[in-house]
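Record type: monomer structure entry
Structure origin: computed from sequence
Chain ID: A
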Amino acid sequence: MTHRIEMEGGGVFDVSADEDTLLRGALRAGVGFPHDCSVGGCGSCRFDLVSGEMETLWPEAPGLSERDRRRGKRLACQSRPRGDCTIRVRPADEYRPAVPPRRREAVLLRRTPVTADMAEFVFSTLEPADFVAGQYGLFQPPGVPGVRAYSMSNLPNAAGEWRFVVRRVPGGAGSNAMFDALQIGTVVTLDGPYGHAHFRAEIDRDVVLIAGGSGIGPIVSIARGALAADPARRITVFEGARTRADLSFRTLLGDDFSDAITYLPVLSAEPEGSDWAGARGFVHAEVDRVLADRFEACEFYFAGPPPMIEALQELLIIQRTVPVSRIHYDRFF
């Protein structure tokens, strides 16, 4: 059974009853519905309900401000249609899915430690792993309400292998369930791919990749995609971490590491007495120092915690006036 969703100004799509949120149904139908995180944190998928009934899955989602709520705004990723509806939203081609997302069963094959608080989870599906480097999938961890978004760290493949870098967050119900409740051999539902901060292989510019924390996953995927598209392409990777023990790019990339990659780790809390000779401080400051007069020649991809994302936006858009079309990231909170 499906519900028919009409968009004011034109456009109709169907959403699966009792299974899909409004956002996921729209993306499965190929609609360019504005979105970023898909889990209620960013607010990019706000819309107005003109007629019909919608169930709100997470009333306190931080993606809506109190002003938004007073104005009757809703989040498509947290809204489930209960019948045919009419909505007000402005779709855009830039949000049209590169690969239509869908659900599939995935079995956990192994979990490999990467740092003290991060591991790479490897899942297998019967169907090919169909996505674009830099995209993410949605899981519902065992015993935890709501879905969690994790980015793929490998490349699409016919074998149906999906890799995700997950960081155990203190007090984080979702990440702790992924580590503690998800056993090897467990079958889960993987929904994806999602995200529009994926690699643009057709753009012939130097690639700059910037990662912080578990944001390293999609950056590793994009690095692999860039190497596969053009082994001679100039790739600069900045990895921000607290200490040397928290660095993971080389470990994750493994034998795929290439001389085409300039790897620049930046540590913010490495003890002063250590023999670390590399950069210290915040990663966005090192990006500014190293690139200097190269900003016009680069395409930027980054992933990491909100303060890092905000600092890079300030640097690239306001200070260095890089066109927004050359800046790619998905917002996670």
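Annotation 1: The chain has a mean pLDDT of 95.
Annotation 2: The chain has three domains: 2-95, 102-194, 206-328.
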